[in-house]
Every structure is written in C-alpha cells, then in structure tokens.
Design a protein that fits this description.
Number of helices: 5
Distance between the termini: 61 Å
Order of helices and strands: HHHEEHH
Strand order of the largest sheet: 1-2
Helix content: 55-70%
Largest sheet: 2 strands, antiparallel
Radius of gyration: 18 Å
Shape: elongated
Structural class: mainly alpha
Number of strands: 2
Length: about 110
C-alpha cells in the first residue's frame, strides 16, 4: 500500500489555492494515489501530514465545510487561525470542566495567595 508523503501532499495542495478551491481529505487521497477506493488509513495520513506541515509553518487552511486549501490572502489565513483557536479553546474548556478546575489552573498559570 502506498504511503503518502509530505512532498506529494504539498505538490497537490498547489492546485488548491484559495478558499474557493478547497478539497476534502478523501479527495486529496484520490488525487495523490490515483485510487478510486479510499481507505481511512490514507485519510488519517493526510490529516496527520497537514498537522505536521502546519507545525512547520505551511499556510494550509481549511474548515469542515470548505475542505483544505492554501491561503491565497492574509484574511483566509486569519480565518483559519481563528477557527483553530476556537476549536482549541473549546477542547481546553471541556478538559477544565471534566477535571473540575478553572481554565487558568489547567494551563498552569500561577495563582497569587489571597
């Protein structure tokens, strides 16, 4: 079974610049592998590589509605940043509630004695 690489993903993403050209992970798999049958393993691999490429500074944007795309404008990048920040904060709030501690305490912020 073919292992999708960062280079292959980045090459395909060059065809998806701007929000109007977004593509979902399963379609990226089909375009990279040329296979009509998609596997969850390949889709997970694409999502993993997107996270890794973002950590390296790639401007891969995306939402569940629009799919993935390379930012064509600073505004597109900012919208994705805001989307990811909101998702991260939602997750952190869930964790703080589950642990029954305040969000600052969860994040390890120091408290001053009162």
């Amino acid at each position: 079974m073919m292992q999708i690489t960062e280079a292959q993903l980045l090459a395909e993403m060059q065809h998806h610049v701007g929000q109007a050209n977004g593509v979902h992970a399963d379609e990226l798999v089909r375009r990279i592998t040329g296979q009509l049958v998609n596997t969850d393993m390949h889709t997970r691999r694409v999502r993993f590589l997107i996270k890794e490429l973002r950590k390296q500074g790639s401007h891969i944007c995306g939402t569940p509605t629009d799919g993935y795309f390379m930012a064509a404008t600073p505004e597109e990048l900012q919208r994705t940043v805001a989307f990811l920040e909101e998702r991260a904060m939602t997750t952190l709030m869930q964790l703080s509630r589950m642990k029954n501690i305040a969000l600052p305490e969860l994040l390890g912020q120091l408290r001053l004695p009162t």
